[in-house]
Design a protein that fits this description.
This is 3-oxoacyl-[acyl-carrier-protein] reductase. This protein has about 250 residues and is α/β, with parallel strands linked by helices. It is built from eight helices and nine strands. The two termini are about 35 Å apart. The structure holds 1,4-dihydronicotinamide adenine dinucleotide. 1,4-dihydronicotinamide adenine dinucleotide (NAI) binds next to helix 1.
Length: about 250
């Protein structure tokens, strides 16, 4: 139980990596503040975790909505008195090749994957600074390090996450707050659901471990980074990709 009585706020917690992370943190003893734009999938997750013994504050919201997120954070502080870890997990794709990508596709991905991460962190960080401790974790991607066909917008946001992580590690380190990013390879979640099986097989063949990753394999890295076992890790970008980018 590495996260006993830990309070973790996880965005995009209703499915995929966010859901696996919520389950992992709860299994390690944490209580949870969860949000997702999809109430139909978020509510059953909150119920499941409560049945397992965790205290859960769950709110359907769009992370791009500053007012709604501020209200959630205020409610979390009122209920739990603190937020130990923020996991900026919510993310979307709107893929198209450079010459076909519309401004709408570009802006939609920037709004959720980059601007909302800035905003959510800006709203939570003062509470961590006040206590002199906390961990901010964000979802980057190997795509942010190496680029990817058809993902101008998405790759830009995931590279931006790395730049913000390093900047915040410098700004918040002296205040006792650690800031890190995880850069997953290809992880089997609903986000990849539209990719044909044949392409998924080809992707797996490029990975030295010869398979795609599981959401639980990202969740366990977030749990480690949130725990005191990672007490001297800040400003890091941890690639979790089965060796895909070697
Ligand atoms: P997913 O699409 O399976 O789940 C994302 C969750 O975030 C959904 O429940 C969705 O409703 C929620 N969400 C999306 N936009 C939101 C918004 N504006 N406000 C609130 N909630 C919102 O995605 P997955 O695969 O679990 O990815 C999670 C994170 O990990 C994302 O940031 C993604 O970019 C990143 N990632 C995923 C990889 C993969 O291969 N699956 C690889 C590298 C990074």
């Amino acid at each position: 139980m590495r996260l006993q009585d830990h309070i973790a706020l996880i965005t995009g917690a209703a499915q995929g990596i966010g859901l696996a992370t919520a389950r992992k943190f709860a299994a390690e003893g944490a209580h949870l503040v969860l949000c997702d734009r999809n109430p139909a999938t978020l509510d059953p997750v909150a119920d499941e975790l409560r049945r397992g013994g965790a205290q859960v504050l769950a709110q359907a919201l769009d992370v791009s909505d500053r007012a709604a997120f501020t209200t959630l954070v205020d409610a979390a502080i009122a209920q739990f008195g603190k937020i130990d870890t923020l996991v900026n997990n919510a993310g979307i794709t709107r893929d198209a090749r450079l010459v076909k990508m519309t401004d709408e596709q570009f802006d939609a991905v920037i709004d959720v994957n980059l601007r909302a991460v800035f905003r959510c962190t800006q709203i939570v960080a003062p509470h961590m600074i006040e206590r002199g401790r906390g961990a901010i974790l964000s979802a980057s991607s190997v795509v942010g390090l190496y680029g990817n066909f058809g993902q101008t917008n998405y790759a830009a946001t995931k590279a931006g996450i790395i730049a913000m992580t390093k900047t915040w590690a410098r700004e918040l380190g002296p205040k006792g707050v650690r800031v890190n990013a995880v850069a997953p390879g290809f992880i089997q979640t609903p986000m990849l659901a539209t990719i044909p099986d044949k392409v998924m097989e080809q992707m797996a063949e490029r990975v030295p471990l010869r398979r795609l990753g599981k959401a639980e394999e990202i969740a366990s890295v977030y749990a480690f980074l949130a725990s005191s076992e990672a007490s001297y890790i800040s400003g890091a970008v941890i690639e979790v990709d089965g060796g895909m980018t070697l």
